[in-house]
Amino acid sequence: MSDQTTTHTESFAALFEAQTAALKEGEVVKGTVLSFDADYVMVDIGFKSEGLVPAWEFMAEDGTLLVKKGDQVDVLIEDVEGEEGRLVLSKEKADRLKIWDQISDAYESDRSVIGTIVSRVKGGLSVDIGVKAFLPGSQVDLRPVRNLEKMLGEKYDFKIIKFNKRRGNIVLSRRALLENERQKMRSTTLETLNEGQIVDGVIKNLTDYGAFIDLGGIDGLLHVTDMSWGRINHPNELFQVGDEIKVKILKFDSETERVSLGLKQIQPDPWVDAAMRYPLGRRIQGKVVSLTDYGAFVELEAGIEGLIHVSEMSWTKRIKHPSKMVSIGDTVEAVVLDVDESNRKISLGMKQIEPNPWSVIEAKYPIGTRVKGSIRNVTNFGVFVGLEEGIDGLIHVSDISWTEQIKHPSEKFEKGQEVEAIVLKIDKENEKFSLGIKQMEVNPWDDLVKKYKVGSEVKGEISNVTDFGAFIKLEDGIEGLIYSSELSAESVSKPADVVKVGETVTALVTKVDPVEQKISLSIRAVTDREARDALKQIASQSRSQTSTLGDLLAKAGAAKKEKGE
Asked: Can you list the domains of the chain with their CATH numbers?
C-alpha cells in the first residue's frame, strides 16, 4: 500500500472516530429510512455508517411494515460500534423514552393522561399509558368499586400523582379528576337547586333506610318512605346503583348542603278519594303484606293497605295471633268496615264474609234446651263446654250441684269429659252462653224447707268446726250451721272448746233459706225455754220465715225491759 493510500485510510478512520465520538449511546436522534428487508430497516442518522433497526419495531400487530423509504424516524443509539462497524439503533426504545418525557412533562404541568386498564394486580389495576402504570383501588372512583374486573379494557383520563423515572414507578388517580369535576358540578348545582323542583339524578348508593342520589356534584337522600306510596322493605326492591331517575326536591338546606328527595311525591296520591273506591261493606281481595300481634295488613293497591284486626278474623275462634289464620303473601277476602282518609287507615273484617253464628244461636239453642258437649277448659269458677266450632257454654261452679259444696270444678270434671247440661242464658252481644247441670234435676231445697221446719229437732254429726261455729251433717250433701252464739247458753269464744268433729249433737232448726241454700241450727235452743217459744213464734208466721231466732230473742229482751222484769 502506497503512503498516499495509507494516509487517506488513516484520515478516514480518524474522521470516523471523530464522528462516532460525537455520538452518545442512549441518545435519541432523527434518521432517514434508506432501505429495508424482512429482518432489518436501514436508517441513516447523518453519519458515514448507517444504523440497523429490527424490522419488527416498525410493524403493526398484523405484521404490516409501517414505514417506507425516505421516512423520517426517531431512533435511539444503542451501540456505536456494532457488527461490521454499523450503528445499532432502536425505534421502540426511542418511543419509550419519548413517552417517559411526555409523562414527565404531564406530571410537571399537572396535566391528565389517557390510559387503558389492562389487568388486575395486587392492590389495584395496571394501566397502559404508553408504559405500565399502577392505579390503586382507592383511586379508581369516588366510592370503592367492588368489582374491579368489570373495568378491564376501559379507557379513562388519569392524573399522575407519583412519578419516578429512574425507578420506572408511576402511580395514577382517576378519583382526583372526578373530585375536581364533581366540585365544579357541585357549585353549579347548588346555584340552581330549589325546593319543589323535579331534577334528574343517578342512584349512587343504597342503604336499608334509603338511596343516595347524585344530582350533579351533590348527593340527596331519597328516604325509603318517600320512594313509593306502597310498602317497601328495602330500596333494592325498586333500584340498583347506577339507575337514572327523576326526583322531587322536598327540602334543601343551603348551609348544610343537605337535600331531601321524594319520588312518590311526583306520583298521584292513592288515598285521594279512597273512601269512594272502598265504600263501607264492599267485599275486596288483597295480599297480606305484614303481620303484627294485633292483626294483618292487606295491600289493596299500591299505597293502600287495610288492617284486619285479630278480633275481626273469626266469629267464634279465640285467635291469639293472626299467623294462626293467615300468612304473608296470602290472598284474602274481606269486607270494608271503616275508611279514614285523613289518617290513611282502612279497617277490614274477614269474619263478616260469613254470617255471625251468634245471631242464630238463640233459635238453635232455646233456653231450657238440653245439650251435650266435651269440656274444653276447666277453671276455678267453672267449666267451658264446646257445643260446636267456636261456641262454648260456661257451667258456673254454682250451677253444678244443688247440694254439694264444690270448692273447685276439677274435683268433679276433667278436660275432654263429655257432659250434659241445660241452656240457662244467651248473651249475643257479649257472646256468652250459660249452662247448668243442677237444673236438670228438681231443686231438693223445695222439699228441704218442708222437711226441716223451723223449731223442729234434728240430730247430726259434727263435720267441721270453724272460728265462727260448727257444721252438722244432716244428710248427704246437706249441712246445717250452728253459729258460736248458738252452741251454748253461755258465751263461747272458741267453738272447738264446746264441740268436736265426729260428735253427734241435737239441735233445733232456726232458719231455712232455700235461695242461699243454708240451714241454721241452735243447740242452745234445745234447753232454753225462751228460745223455744221464740221458734214457735217463727213457725207460726205464715207469710215469711226470714226472721231469725236472734231477732225474736232481741225483741223479747226489749219487751221485758219495758215491763220492768
From this structure: 3-95 (2.40.50.140), 110-178 (2.40.50.140), 193-266 (2.40.50.140), 274-338 (2.40.50.140), 357-440 (2.40.50.140), 445-562 (2.40.50.140)
Predicted confidence band at 456 (pLDDT cuts at 50, 70, 90)? confident
**Greater pLDDT, 217 or 117:** 117
Give strand pairing partners of 40: 54
Place of cell 372526578: 178
pLDDT at 337 over 90: yes
pTM of the model: 0.45
Rounded Cα–Cα distance for residues 468 and 92 (Å):
124
- Under DSSP, is residue 521 helix (H, G, I), strand (E, B) or coil? strand
**HSE on the CB side for 68, CA within 13 Å?**
0
* pLDDT (mean) for 365-381: 88
Residue 58 pLDDT > 80, yes or no? no
User: What radius of gyration do the chain's Cα atoms show?
Assistant: 55
C-alpha cell at 230: 306502597
DSSP per position, 380-411: SSEEEEEEETTEEEEEEGGGS-SS---S-GGG
CA separation for the pair 176, 562 (Å, rounded): 121
